[in-house]
Amino acid sequence: MPICSMPGRRCGTTRGAAVALVLTPLFEAEFEDISFAYRKGRSVDQAVQRVVRLREQGYRWVVDADIDEVIREARVSRVS
């Protein structure tokens, strides 16, 4: 583990921020433009506005997918 001159809690926060600085651009490049969750500069209001615009364009279906549910189901299936 690297030596850090800052107190432990702050050092961990600093490392986390450094990792985020490196990884965020990589993930952002992979996300779809329609993805809003947990993204800097995106909000619930923007997501709702996007849905409203799509509805006005004639779209009628909204699909909400959550990978956590998929993982939970896989674990349950594996145990059963």
Word description of this protein:
With 80 residues, the protein is mostly helical. The chain folds into two domains: 1-30, no CATH class; 33-80, no CATH class. It contains three helices and no strands. It has helices spanning 8-30, 44-56, 67-79. The longest helix has 23 residues, at 8-30. The termini are far apart.
Number of helices: 3
Percent range for β-strand residues:
under 5%
**Secondary structure: helix percent:** 55-70%
Uncertain residue segments: none
Q: Major sheet: size, sense and barrel closure?
A: none
Secondary-structure blueprint:
Elements: H1 8-30, H2 44-56, H3 67-79
List keywords for this structure.
61% helix; 80 residues; mainly alpha; flat
Briefly characterize the structure.
With 80 residues, this protein is mostly helical. It has three helices and no strands. The longest helix has 23 residues.
